[in-house]
Design goal:
Blueprint (H helix, E strand, L loop, with lengths): L5 E7 L6 H11 L5 E7 L6 H8 L4 E4 L6 H6 L9 E5 L3 E2 L4 H9 L5 E9 L15 H9 L7 H6 L10 E2 L7 E5 H6 L12 H12 L1 E12 L9 H18 L4
Parallel strand pairs: 1-2, 1-4, 2-3, 6-9
Antiparallel strand pairs: 4-8, 5-9, 6-8, 7-9
Length: 256
């Protein structure tokens, strides 16, 4: 057994300009549990991999020969994992407290917990409205076109905002920007479904976890997500997002 209890992985692609803040916050704030960080670099052309190796020698960098996508990138650490818990971390996540240790402590109380999802916040502290139920056409449509800070009735339902936000509750969907897995569960499921290049692979794996184990929203811990919703601005990412939606419904069935 390795000398760490929790492993974490960040998948990068041309992330040199933002990755320092994420790595430093994760390594600095994670104090209460032995922790090991992996970075899988998806063939960046901006020197991300070399930058991390030069500046963070304690981080294990795995270099992919091509940009294989979010889920496939995270799956590259599967053969190396010998931890009790494993955290999937976006390169635009910032920790402001020891969230990882808090989640590990809570997961220790119940061996049937397979996945924990903390509260996700914008940098100014506002809560990000993220789906916690299985996606449907109605949910995704409202989530995509919703504007403003006030949630619609559909968004309240999809994001389960009507639930008490001061204690854990079951979910079937979780955001991939920060997912806390029991490592044995992550490995049992074979990681992410690599048919999803990017987007909705998080919905898929959370749903698969919830069919066998407890998947819980844990709002007492939080992380900051520097979310820019790039697929709304970039046509290439928009097409990838649409393809992932079609892949999801082809796999799980179309629900309105």
């Amino acid at each position: 057994m390795n000398d760490y209890t929790v492993s974490g992985c960040i998948v990068t692609y041309n992330s040199k300009n933002i990755i320092s803040r994420t790595i430093e916050s994760v390594l600095t704030e994670t104090k209460g549990v032995p922790f090991k960080l992996f970075v899988v670099d998806n063939a960046s052309t901006d020197g991300t991999a070399d930058y991390i190796k030069e500046n963070y020698p304690g981080v294990t960098v795995i270099e992919s020969k091509d940009n294989c996508g979010f889920g496939a990138g995270h799956n590259k650490v599967l053969p190396f994992l010998d931890s009790k818990y494993h955290v999937v971390i976006n390169p635009d996540i910032i920790l402001k407290s020891d969230t990882i240790s808090e989640l590990a402590s809570f997961a220790d109380t119940d061996e049937t917990i397979g996945l924990l999802s903390p509260q996700i916040r914008f940098e100014d502290g506002r809560i990000q409205m993220l789906g916690k139920k299985n996606p449907t056409v109605r949910y995704l449509g409202d989530h995509w076109f919703h504007k403003g800070d006030e949630p619609s009735k559909t968004m309240i339902d999809y994001c389960m905002l009507d639930k008490p936000q001061d204690k854990p509750f079951p979910i079937t969907n979780a955001t991939g920007c920060f997912m806390f897995f029991r490592t044995s569960v992550f490995k049992e499921l074979g990681g992410f479904d690599e048919r999803f290049f990017m987007y909705l692979e998080d919905c898929d794996i959370a749903r698969r976890v919830s069919e066998r184990y407890k998947a819980l929203f844990y709002p007492m811990a939080d992380v900051t997500h520097l979310w820019e919703r790039e697929s709304k601005k970039n046509k290439k990412l928009l097409l990838i997002h649409i393809r992932s939606i079609l892949t999801y419904f082809a796999k799980w069935g179309l629900k309105f």
